[in-house]
Amino acid sequence: METAHFTSGEPAVVITRVAQRQWHALEDDRVAGRGEASTRPDGRTFLSIDAWHRSVFDRLADAMLADLRGPLHTIVDEADAELTAGWERAGFTTRRREWEYVVSTGGAGPVAPPPGVTIVPLGAASEGPLRALDRVVRAEIEATVGWQEMPAEVLPHPPGDTVVDPAKYAVAAEADEYVGLVRVVRVTRLPRIGLIAVRADRQRRGIARALLAQVLGALHDAGIPTASAEVNEANPAATALFESVGARRASSNLELVRHGE
Q: Which residues form the N-acetyltransferase domain (predicted)?
């Protein structure tokens, strides 16, 4: 977690790389700040810094940038101007904005899938066809906007495999194959709709909306009143999908990037 509210003063600190991707700022042998780098499934490296003092943040950022090759990324709450300014001092610029939506699980109501399509509920998908669909969807996204435009979880997985836990998915099936999927991540009390994707040759038929309505209904039946989702502002189709089920914008995040060596 990054600390956004810096205090005044410039403590004397020593920056130490304590692990391959971890840095500490030490003041009289006490930890005054921490920095960490993590690699997401799409290969991008994201940085985070936890520090109360502006100068400690800057020293940690300088040390991390000296040790790592770019491009490097970070995520900040757009409302946190001070933290954003800290990364901008380190040479980061805004790459994209993601809207954080909150949606009532009881607001969508039942939505019938198109003829010939059935919805397989959360946790009931067959693993083999699910992984096959995931590979198709990933290839289609890579060939168009690029997978780096999709929200990604920092989770371990075998190379080339983005299905970490099949139990997190509901799918749409047609003619004995899977044609669409939705992933629900329950990392907190507020479940997150992590990904909705439909094969390119099956889009614009209402499959995505039927998938979303099904998982929202399942969460509602489980006593969970709301869920969240991150939507790239450059994706009008996803924005329209969530707003069609009554989702509201709660906040926004900026992805910042620093190119270079």
A: 117-261
How many other CB atoms sit within 10 Å of the CB of residue 221?
A: 10
Contact 210, 113 (CB under 8 A): yes
On whether residue 203 sits in a domain, the answer given is yes
In terms of residue numbers, what domain contains 222? Answer: 101-252
Query: Is 5 contained in some domain?
Result: no
133-142 in b/e burial notation, b at 16+ Cβ within 10 A? bbebbbebbe
| CATH number of the domain bearing residue 161 | 3.40.630.30
pLDDT tens for residues 127-169?
999 999 988 888 887 777 665 655 544 344 555 556 668 889 9
Closest CA to 133 of 158, 111, 162, 153: 162
Supply the pLDDT for residue 220: 92
249 DSSP 8-state letter? E
Q: Is residue 44 situated within a structural domain?
A: yes
Q: How many domains does the chain have?
A: 2
Name the CA dihedral angle for 14, 18, 21, 23, rounded to a multiple of 10 degrees.
-20
Statement: the pTM of the whole predicted model exceeds 0.90: no
Cis peptide bond upstream of 71, omega within 30: yes
Burial of 187 (0-12, 13-18, 19+ CB in 10 A): exposed
Query: Shortest CA distance to 79 belongs to which of 260, 256, 254, 255?
Result: 254
Residue 151 DSSP SS3? coil
- Measured from the Cβ of residue 69, the count of other Cβ atoms closer than 10 Å reads 9
